[in-house]
Task: structure prediction
Amino acid sequence: MRQDNQLIVITHLSQLITLVTGFGSLIVPLILWITQKEKVYHMDEHGKNIVNFQLSLILYFIICIPLILLLGLGILGFIVLGIISIVFPIINAIKASHGETPKYPLSLNFIS
Result:
């Protein structure tokens, strides 16, 4: 195994591809994680955290859809989740560049 903090940082930042293309925030990090988890030191841990975070966001966005009818809480949820989905990949990419373990808020453990 090799130490490659740049690839880990790119994996965290690849979640932001949705801002450009409209999709891919789960697909690109998932592909990077699956193909590199056996080759790059700590990629497995970072990849699991990223995939769990993205799956959690998808679930929370789905929950927000019916909440739009309930006093518009779903719209507020969309705004908060949108901010979280932009800010935390950047924060965790910076942490990963320093060799720290990422922490994503509201992340459920789908893959352990």
In short: DSSP finds five helices and no strands in the chain. Residues 22 and 61 are 15 Å apart (CA to CA). The mean pLDDT is 93.
